[in-house]
Structures are given as C-alpha cells and as structure tokens.
Write a sequence for this structure.
C-alpha cells in the first residue's frame, strides 16, 4: 500500500479547467511513430522499430522474418491484411485515420487506434516489392478526447443544476466505460460532521457491498476511503488481500470480487471534507500516471457537483425559513386584525349599553323599580327586572341577569347597586 500526498481542491468551473490542464496532458500522453518494412506478397516483416513492436504486443512479438499474418493472427477479418494486398497489387498508397484495431488474442483484446499509411516500395525497375508501414498510435488521444467530452457533459449537468445523484452516477458510468482497464467507481459523501461516509454512487458495485459500507467511519486504517477521508490525501491499496487497512473489510471485498482500491478525498475550496472518489479493480494493480490523473480530474468534478448541491440545499433551507417567517407574520397580522375587530365590537356594544343605562336612569324618575328589564335595547326585554346596576357617573338601571352581566362585561365602571330587592348577593346566587 502506498499513500500519495496532495490535496484535491474544488473550484469554480473556469478554475477547474485550469486545474485539470496537467491531468489532460497526462491523459493524452505522447504519441510515438511506428514503422515496419514488409516484403513480398506474404508481407514478411523485414524490420520494424521498437515502437511498432511495443504497440502490437511488446517483446513477445519482437520478431522478424515471418509474415505479418503469422505475427499478428488477430488481424484476420479486420481488413488490414486485405488493404496490404491491395496496395501491393495496385501500387497505390493507402492512408487511414483513427483506424480501430483489436490487438492480442483471448477474451479481452486491447482496443487501439492508429493514423497510418501503407506506402508501396519499388525496385529499380519500378516493380512493387514490399510495403512500408508508417503510423502513429492515437489510442490515448482518442480515449482522452472521449473522456473530455464526457467531462464537459458533466460540467454542463452541474451548470444546469441536475440532481446530484444523476451527476455522480453519470460520472461513475462514463469513467467505467472509457477506462482502458476494467474499473468500478464509487463515490461516498461525507456527513456534515465529516465523521462518516454515505453512499453517493456506485453503479457497478454489488448492492450488498454498497449497503455494508454505507455509513463507515472516517479514520486511520478504515479501508481505502475511510483512511483517505481522514488523511485528506489519496490512499492507494494495490492488494486488498494483504493490506492492513482492509482487515475489517477483507471478506466483504472478497465476496464482491474486489482486489485493489485507490481512493481520493473530495475536498471543498476551504479544505472541508465532501466525500471520497474510489476506483476499484478486480485484480491487484498499481496505478499508472493516467489513472492518477483520471482520479484527480474527476475528484475535482465531483467536488463542484457536491458543493453546488450543498449551496442549493442551503438556499432551499433559507427559503423555507423565510416562508415560515412570512406565514407566521401573516398569522400574527390576521390575529391582530381579529382582536381589533372584536375590540371595536365590544366598544360599540358598550356604547349602546351606556345609552340604555342613561335612558333607563331617566325613566326611573317615574318608575323607580320597573317590572321588566330596562337593558334589552330597542328590541326590549320581557324578563323581570331583578338586578340594579350603576356606573360612576350616577346612571343606574334595572335589568335581568343576562343583560346585567352583559353590561358588567362591556361598560366601563359598571357595578351592582345595593337594593333591597337585589344586590350583589342576588347576582352571585342567581
């Protein structure tokens, strides 16, 4: 296991492009010209440069003096041998651009792309005696171009505020599809306190594995991802079966068919932990420069997506709080309006009762103790006049218990008057 130091910081889209420039150069690599001299109608390999042999399979194929079809049997059916026959027969050169070829035998041949030219070689008499193969492998360029197209698409998704789960899932799938070697991608998201990691995206990992690691702690020795999150730097485990970081997860990884895991922390611009970006392999492996560049590039892209998501969540929470405050203010205003209306109604009732008392006081000059309630208003009240009320201005009136209680509640300074036929006792014991 090797830990690779270096912080991975998020940035705005423009800065992300600048930050990724070194990674892009690494992904594109350096193209080297390939050359081979073939002779006769059987296209026997007379000579070839090291780049040619490296491109077609390395030292195991560094042989001359045999037909190309024997050196590279996988070319049968791909059209390249037919083109050689045509150039040898017609003497007309042929140029191909970004030609796709499958190299190597077995279930997993290597996909490669070449710009190449077949040039006829002639003797002094002008007769075609062989063919010169001159080319440039463009595989890395082709893959990098496709990768950058996917990267631009992801940035566009982030810009149009696509859901975070959609962005992360699409990113994982694009890396898995474009990687030269089989790779399984996982993105874990950090809890707000940075102490645990939650499932973000892992389209090709088994469901039981994703469930098992959902919520793992961040800390030294907690697998590749927990350790990378704790250290805030990449952690590369080349062989899960022997690395101590995986002691607690070795059986789980074995059931999932995982043998190597390289994890890169996803960090915000202020250095806060956002999550981890992991690349799993089914066989023990050490990373190449292109692998590290790929992880660096997409960890930065994931940081953009996650930070945008956090900003949107904060905005939504602020909008919810503002709406709640607005609704509470509206309820308060409505309550105040209702209380004001009720107060105005009580004031109107008090004024009316006061007028009734004044009218009743004037009438008492002729009838000191009326038979019926004097507080019934214009509609009158036929109830017996049982209680006498008075106010501080000297006005008094007789009324039934219902209207007397209404007067007490609504007219300022009204009290029960002391009379032989009524009084406070009669009011309390009514």
């Amino acid at each position: 296991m090797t830990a690779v130091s270096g912080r991975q910081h998020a940035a705005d889209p423009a800065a992300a492009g600048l930050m990724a420039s070194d990674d892009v150069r690494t992904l594109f690599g350096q193209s080297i010209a390939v050359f081979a001299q073939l002779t006769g109608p059987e296209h026997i390999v007379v000579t070839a440069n090291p780049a040619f042999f490296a491109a077609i399979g390395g030292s195991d194929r560094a042989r001359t003096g045999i037909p190309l079809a024997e050196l590279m049997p996988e070319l049968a059916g791909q059209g390249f041998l037919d083109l050689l026959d045509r150039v040898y027969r017609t003497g007309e050169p042929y140029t191909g651009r970004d030609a796709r070829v499958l190299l190597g035998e077995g279930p997993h041949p290597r996909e490669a792309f070449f710009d190449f030219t077949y040039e006829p070689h002639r003797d002094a008499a002008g007769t075609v005696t062989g063919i010169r193969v001159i080319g440039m492998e463009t595989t890395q360029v082709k893959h990098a171009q496709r990768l950058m197209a996917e990267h631009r698409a992801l940035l566009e998704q982030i810009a149009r505020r696509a859901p975070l789960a959609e962005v992360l899932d699409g990113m994982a799938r694009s890396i898995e599809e474009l990687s030269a070697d089989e790779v399984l991608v996982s993105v874990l998201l950090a809890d707000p306190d940075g102490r645990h990691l939650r499932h973000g995206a892992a389209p090709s990992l088994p469901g039981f594995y994703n469930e098992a690691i959902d919520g793992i702690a961040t800390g030294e020795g907690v697998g590749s991802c927990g350790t990378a999150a704790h250290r805030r730097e990449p952690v590369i485990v080349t062989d899960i079966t022997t690395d101590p970081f995986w002691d607690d997860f070795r059986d789980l990884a074995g059931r999932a068919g995982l043998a190597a895991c390289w994890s890169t922390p996803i960090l915000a611009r202020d250095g806060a932990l956002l999550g981890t970006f992991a690349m799993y392999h089914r066989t023990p492996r050490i990373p190449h420069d292109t692998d590290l560049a790929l992880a660096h590039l997409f960890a930065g892209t994931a940081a953009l997506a996650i930070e945008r998501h956090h900003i949107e969540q904060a905005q939504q929470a602020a909008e919810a709080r503002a709406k709640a405050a607005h609704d509470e203010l509206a309820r308060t205003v409505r309550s105040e309006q209702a209380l004001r209306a009720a107060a105005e109604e009580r004031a109107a009732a008090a004024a009316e009762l006061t007028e009734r008392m004044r009218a009743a006081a004037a009438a008492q000059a002729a009838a000191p103790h009326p038979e019926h309630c004097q507080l019934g208003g214009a509609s009158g009240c036929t109830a017996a006049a049982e209680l006498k009320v008075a106010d501080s201005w000297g006005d008094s009136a007789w009324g039934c218990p219902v209207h007397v209680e209404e007067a007490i509640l609504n007219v300022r300074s009204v009290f029960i008057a002391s009379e032989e036929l009524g009084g406070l006792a009669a009011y309390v014991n009514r």
Observations:
- The chain is about 45% helix and 20% strand.
- The chain has three domains: 2-26+142-315, 32-137, 364-428.
- The CA atoms of residues 386 and 393 lie 22 Å apart.
- Residues 1-21, 421-425 have pLDDT under 50 and may be disordered.
